[in-house]
Amino acid sequence: MTLSERNVFFKVGIVFCAILTLLMLAVIFTIGLDFVPALEDDEPRRPVNLFQNITGYIFAGNFFAVHISIILLVLFSLIAIILIHYFFERTSAPEILYIAIFAISLSFEVLRLVLPLHLIHNFPSFYARVAFRILLFARFFGIFSLFAASVNAAGLDVQKVRHVIFAIIITSLIITLGVPIDVLNWDTSFNMVNGFSSMFRLIEIAVFISTMISFFIAAKIRDSKEYTFVAIGIIFAFIGRNILLGTDNWSAPFMGIILLSFGTWFLCSKLHKIHLWL
Question: pTM (2 decimals)?
């Protein structure tokens, strides 16, 4: 993929994220405060993850906090792709394309708002199921893109970008299309319950660890400690992402967005430094 083609992708990503941002605002305006009694009547369970297990004992679940987390994710996605395009417009950094895809994938978290819409307006559960499958696809597409960035840094042929993206799409589709989704069961972070959740967590962990290892290999092969810092940035960004995706209390918006923003800025600044003089 040429530099001009990549920049066109960035511009399309900006437009796409802007549309989803406007959609999010429209949905939130439509929902208003009506979602609170509708959700509380269903008595959903609370999420299960490490950060939630720690903070859940301190903070009670709050649906407004989840709304704020979703808003921050969508706004982050839009701002991140704008800044990536601005700072990398003339910098040939093959890894940044996959980082941009990861950032764009976070805008799909607006689909979590389909759950309160479904409970309030009682539209067919088919649409809620489809929305959550798309959301799962976007999440896996995002983390696999981070792995592709790390493999690229470690020496993947950059001329095969389209093949890599196609492989990521197919892999994400295979994972998400066969997942059983129960639209009647959901947790307080607006995530519907899906089958094989433990296996998917293991896949995420495996991809995350593989991404770190690949960047450390890149640091060794290319004799550049900056790739080690990129790996550290991804650690912060990944943790912040997971906090915002699966935590239902007021600690999530602040801690999550700080870690996600810092990690993304840190890794992008190091990638820019690596390729600035190439």
Answer: 0.92
At 62 the pLDDT is 84
Instruction: Please give the pLDDT value at position 43.
Output: 63
- Distance separating alpha carbons of residues 146 and 231, to the nearest angstrom: 10
Three-state secondary structure along the chain? CCHHHHHHHHHHHHHHHHHHHHHHHHHHHHHCCCHHHHHHHHCCECCCCHHHHHHCCCCCCCHHHHHHHHHHHHHHHHHHHHHHHHHHCCCCCHHHHHHHHHHHHHHHHHHHHHHHHHHHHCCCHHHHHHHHHHHHHHHHHHHHHHHHHHHHHCCCCHHHHHHHHHHHHHHHHHHHHCCCEEEEEEECCCCEEECCHHHHHHHHHHHHHHHHHHHHHHHHHCCCCHHHHHHHHHHHHHHHHHHHHHCCCCHHHHHHHHHHHHHHHHHHHHHHHHHCCC
Residue count of the chain, please give it.
Answer: 278
- The CA distance from 231 to 99, in Å, is 12
Say how far apart CA 228 and CA 218 lie, in whole Å: 8
Note the pLDDT of residue 271.
Answer: 93
Q: Do the strands 181-186 and 192-194 form a parallel or antiparallel pair, or are they unpaired?
A: antiparallel
Give CA–CA dist 82/76, Å, rounded.
Answer: 10
How would you label 210-224 residue by residue, b for 16+ Cβ within 10 Å and e otherwise?
A: ebbebbbbbbeeeeb
pLDDT at 137: 94
- Pick out the chain residues at pLDDT < 70: 32-43, 156-159, 277-278
